[in-house]
Design goal:
The protein is mostly beta strands and about 190 residues long. The chain has two domains: about 30 residues, no CATH class; about 100 residues, no CATH class. It has two helices and ten strands; from the N terminus they run H-E-E-E-E-E-E-E-E-E-E-H. A hairpin with a 2-residue loop joins strand 9 and strand 10.
Amino acid sequence: MMKKIGADYQDHRYNGFPHWFPKFDESELAYKLLFEDLIKRKRDPFHSTIYWECDDVKYGRCDWLQITSLDTTAKRAAWQKDINFEIKKWIVLGDKDSAITRDTLLHGVKYRKSSGAIKATYKNNVFTVQTSDVKSFSILLSPEMVDLSRPVVVIVNGKLYLKQKVGYNEDFLQTGFRNTADRAAI
């Protein structure tokens, strides 16, 4: 599933307990890989394209885009697809911890709540946004993204929503920094 969506993902397995991240000495290799990978990466909080999906607005923010309320009773856009995979074999433990494989047909992910999704891009002070099951959202601007001497244009689902000059909101900037301590994206 991770390959299908183009995720930057690695899977490493280790002996030890618990199996998802070993404790004590067994974790040394995992920590080494983790920090070697982190050192090679450079975060870009202002990349020009974002796709974000959430089923709880508590997790609605991705860099400069934030889903602030959902409308999951609306008609879902055709481009918003649930990502899932089928499980056709299930392994259970039998007598003396022997592995028994059983045929089954399950989905790997159980979606308990409906989600909303948003696709957004920006270039030359123009933001183009598509929403699906999203009632409201915020665009968080930075002078690294737009020229504040010119109007900002926001097009939502093919319709012009905003065309105006914007400025700084000092209270918003300070509150945002206090909440995130993010020095890279002010």
